[in-house]
Amino acid sequence: MAGTGAVATPRHYRGRDPLTDEPVELWVTGEVISRTPAAGAVTAADGVWILPGFVDAHNHVGIAPGLGVTIDRAREFARADARAGTLLIREVGSPLDTHPLDDDPTCPRFIRSGKHIARPKRYLRDYGIDLDDPDELAAEVARQAADGDGWVKIVGDWIDREVGDLAPLWDRTQLEAAVAAAHAGGARITAHVFGTDALGDLIEAGVDCIEHGTGLTADHIDALVDRSIALVPTMIQVENFPGIADGADRFPTYAANMRSLYARAAQTFSAAREAGVAIYAGTDAGGFVEHGRIVDEIDALTGIGMSVREAIAAASTAPRRWLDAGILADGDRADFLVFDTDPTTDPGVLRHPTEIVCSGLPV
Questions:
Q1: E-strand spans in 53-125?
Q2: Cβ atoms within 10 Å, residue 42
C-alpha cells in the first residue's frame, strides 16, 4: 500500500463504465472524487474502464482461526482485501472492534454489524454474544445496533448437539421483537442461516437479509422477493461444507444435512436469481476463507447463471446502492478500480487492475 495520506497533486481519470458503457470522467483531490475539473490535475489514465471499488458484503477482518486477532492483524487482512480491489467491507460480526481502521486511508471503508448474537453452545465459541435468556434477544439487538454502522447480525441456526442437527436458535416472537428493535434503532438486521428450519420464522419476522441461505425452498425464495429481503450466498464458503461434514462424524444427521445442502446449493441460488432475489457478493473471509478472494466470489456467481456483467455489478454498484454507499459521485470517497481492458469482455483482468485507488491513494 503506497503512502499514508492522499496524493497531493489532483489526478484526472477518463474512461467508460463497463457496466453501462457510459463515459466516466473524474478528478481525485485529496481523499475524494470531484466531477468538475481540478486546477493543476495530472491525467493519470485515459481511455480506460472505471469501476467503483468492489464490495465484500460478508467479511470478518476481526476473525481468524484460533481467534485472538489484534487490530494490527485485522489491518493486514483489510489491506489484503484492498489489494484485491475490495474497497468497501460489510463486516457481519466480529469479536474485535475494528473501528480504529476507519482512520487508516490504506484500508477499505467499513459498514459493521457489531458482534454476532447467539446462544450458549449454539455458535462458534467466543465469536459473539451468547444470551442465556433468548427473550433478551431484542435488548441485545438494540445494544449491537448502537455499536454498529447500521446493521445487526444474529445467528439464525447452528448445530444443536441434543438433536444432532441444525436447528433454530429463536422463536417467532423473539425474532419479531428483535427486528422491531433493530429498525427502531435505525439499523437493518441480517441472519446467518445454513439450513431450512429457521428460515420461515426469520422471513416472516422481517429480517432484511439472509446470509448463506443454502436451505432456501421455492416458497422461501418467493417470500424473499415479495418482502425485498436480500441474499448473500457466500458461495466460496459453501465449498467448505463437505469438509465441515467430514469433521462431524459424531453427528451423522448433521453431516448428512450439510452434504445435502452443499449438493443442491448451486440449484438453490440459481432459482433465487431467476426469481429476482437481490443477490450480493460476499466471501465470508475470516476463519476458513482467506482474505482477498472477492474475484473468486464473482466467478462463482457466474456459475448460478449470472452474466459476467451481472456478477461484477453484484460485487460493486448493486451492493453500494443497497448499502447507501458512494458510486463515484461528486464528493464520494475516492475508491475505484481502473482497467485497460473491458472486464465484462475479459473478466480475467478483474484480478489485475491497472490501478486500485483507495481513499485517494494508489494501492
A1: 54-59, 86-91, 109-112, 117-118
A2: 10
Residues facing 265 on adjacent strands: none
Distance separating the N- and C-terminal Cα atoms of the chain: 5
Taking only the tens place, the pLDDT of each residue in 266-302 is 999 999 999 999 999 999 999 899 999 999 999 999 9
Rg of the Cα atoms in the chain: 20
251, 214, 228: which is closest to 321 by C-alpha? 228
Cell of 159: 448445530
Return the C-alpha torsion angle 83, 86, 92, 95, nearest 10: 20
- Decide: helix, strand or coil at residue 144: helix
Confidence of residue 3 (pLDDT cuts 50, 70, 90): very low
pTM of the prediction? Answer: 0.96
Place of cell 466531477: 35
Q: DSSP states of 225-246 as a string?
A: HHHT-EEE--HHHHTTHHHHHH
CA dist 200 → 52, 86, 170, 219, 267 (Å): 35, 33, 12, 9, 19
Q: Give the integer Cα–Cα distance in Å for 175 and 44.
A: 51
pLDDT of residue 2: 44
Query: Cell for 356?
Result: 486500485
Handedness of CA 297, 302, 308, 310 (dihedral sign): negative
Mean pLDDT over 327-344 rounds to 98
Which amino acid would we find at residue 57?
Answer: A
Contact status, residue 157 vs residue 197, Cβ threshold 8 Å = yes
User: In 3D, which of 316, 285, 283 has the Cα closest to residue 297?
Assistant: 283
Q: Length of the chain in residues, anyone?
A: 363
Tens of pLDDT along 130-186? Answer: 999 999 999 999 999 998 999 999 999 999 999 999 999 999 999 999 999 999 999
Q: Are 279 and 272 in contact (CB under 8 A)?
A: yes
What letter would DSSP give residue 1? -
| Local structure of 355: helix, strand or coil | strand
